TrEMBL record:
InterPro entries: CHAD_dom, CHAD_dom_sf, CYTH-like_dom_sf, CYTH_domain, YgiF. This is Ceramide glucosyltransferase. It holds the Pfam family CYTH. GO terms for molecular function: inorganic triphosphate phosphatase activity; metal ion binding. Gene3D superfamilies: CHAD domain, Hypothetical Protein Pfu-838710-001. The lineage of its organism: Bacteria, Pseudomonadati, Pseudomonadota, Alphaproteobacteria, Sphingomonadales. It comes from Novosphingobium resinovorum. Residues 203-478 form the CHAD domain. Residues 1-189 form the CYTH domain.
């Protein structure tokens, strides 16, 4: 089983790891420089291909990698061979030519990656410690990461080593390729990252689809972390929390068909992490409503304290270890090794997706009956079920991309988003007073609408109408 794990660390962590007993042997060292190519309109990026020429000593190696849905269009996802110089070779066998045809004439360098790599072997694991820079014109950014690649022996050893490294030099899960770093440097200033479509196709099994969904959620979460930690960005915190909720929904889907004793613990840990982010999110929601009210200063002080706590939680050994645990579970958890799960694991995903969506829709229909008369607790349960249905709909979106499915999918998702938004407004209405009580803040009008029966009645009527629209929408998966 081939397996790789990438971990990011800061400069101090790089020094600590390099000097640790974990890496006591003399390393092999190599200087690398890679040039990445694309067209002016980034045709390769849009087509999920990367093209680079990497120089190591006197050797130059050209590599083309396919990712996401594009990988399924070719027999293999990576092509690599030596070239004479820094000019790409794009003949009729190249997937680049297959993707963009005569547009290859416009391909030119777009950014470079310079890297000092040290390497060790630890049993059957290759350890690469990278100290690198990405350069795009006059823009530069640096990175430090350790890559662990399983070469032989028990694949679980890679995760045991990752935990040992984390104890020496705190690490965060690495999810960005060097190509992704370069393209992000080329783009505008970083903003919060929303969830991307999961790269599923009809040939996938239930097991491989759930792996893809889980890794997509981790990617979504991890990309938003720097903006939360370094800039206290409210939108990034919201997206990180959404990523955790999506992952918990994926676990719920998983739990319905697979036997795995690890899932309850992972779910508990994700619930803890979501709750830590939720305290800050509640304040951000209130601040949007307060304007320049008398309590704004108190809320800003509470926000600063909440984000302090978020930073501590996100960088804690508990959160860091959870990310490693999740990658290990997704890669080689009990659910993949237990013979009890073998039949469902090998089941084609389209039928499973349809059954999952049917079941979740049925629950939303039942829980939303007589919505305007529901108490707060019942309405909250409906809101959670609607979220699960929305996340599942988004998870399986790529399976319904045919023209005959596309319109029904969009209408269903739009109706679902409307319902979720209206239920969210109702939740914010009832949560405002509770948040202020928790913070010990009194006065002002931030929770004024919570006691306004007309405002609540209008929102309830709107939510009921959106629920009716959703239940009346055509089921695109049938």
């Amino acid at each position: 089983m081939e397996m790789e794990l990438k971990l990011e660390l800061d400069a101090a962590g790089m020094d600590a790891l390099g000097a640790s007993e974990l890496l006591a042997a003399a390393p092999g060292a190599v200087s690398q420089r890679a040039i990445y190519f694309d067209t002016p309109d980034q045709s390769l990026l849009r087509g999920a291909l990367s093209l680079r020429i990497r120089r190591e000593g006197d050797r130059r190696v050209q590599t083309v990698k396919a990712s996401g849905a594009t990988a399924g269009l070719f027999v293999r996802p990576e092509w690599e061979f030596e070239v004479a110089d820094d000019q790409p070779v794009l003949d009729h066998t190249s997937p680049v030519r297959a993707l963009i045809g005569t547009g290859t004439e416009a391909i030119a360098p777009v950014f470079a990656v310079e890297n000092e790599r040290r390497q060790w072997m630890d049993g059957g694991i290759e350890i690469s410690l990278d100290d690198g820079r990405v350069i795009a014109g006059d823009r530069k950014t640096s990175f430090a990461e350790v890559e662990l690649e399983h070469k032989s022996g028990d694949p679980a050893a890679i995760f045991a080593l990752a935990r040992k490294i984390d104890a020496v030099a705190p690490v965060q899960l690495g999810v960005m390729s060097k190509a992704e770093r370069g393209y992000r440097l080329l783009g505008p200033a970083l903003t919060a990252t929303k969830a991307h479509r999961v790269a599923l196709d009809e040939s996938m099994t239930v097991a491989s689809a759930l792996q893809a969904i889980g890794f997509a959620c981790l990617h979504h979460y991890r990309l938003n972390l720097p903006l939360v930690l370094d800039h206290r960005d409210a939108s990034a915190l919201h997206q990180a929390r959404v990523a955790i909720r999506r992952l918990r929904s994926a676990l719920t889907i998983h739990k319905s068909v697979f036997v795995d004793r690890t899932v309850p613990r992972l779910n508990t840990e994700l619930r803890w992490l979501a709750a830590e982010l939720g305290k800050a999110r509640d304040i951000d929601v209130l601040l949007k409503r307060t304007g320049q009210s008398a309590i704004r200063t108190q809320l800003l002080e509470a926000r600063a304290a909440a984000y302090d706590a978020v930073g501590i939680a996100l960088q804690s050994a508990r959160a860091r270890g959870l990310m490693i645990d999740l990658v290990e579970w997704l890669s080689m958890g009990e659910w993949l090794r237990d013979d009890t799960n073998a039949e469902v694991a090998a089941t084609p995903v389209p039928g499973f997706a349809a059954r999952t969506l049917r079941k979740l829709r049925k629950k939303v229909k039942r829980q939303g009956h007589g919505l305007e008369a529901l108490d707060d607790e019942s309405r909250h349960e409906l809101r959670k079920s609607a979220k699960k249905l929305r996340y599942a709909t988004e998870f399986f979106a790529a399976l319904y991309d045919r023209k005959r499915d596309r319109r029904g999918f969009k209408r269903f998702l739009s109706a679902l988003e409307d319902l979720q938004d209206s239920l969210g407004d109702l939740n914010d209405l009832s949560a405002a007073s509770e948040t202020l009580r928790r913070l010990g803040i009194t006065g002002g009008d931030a929770d004024g609408r919570a006691g306004d029966p007309k405002a609540k009645a209008a929102l309830l009527e709107q939510a009921a109408a959106h629920h009716d629209s959703l239940i009346g929408a055509k089921r695109f998966w049938t």
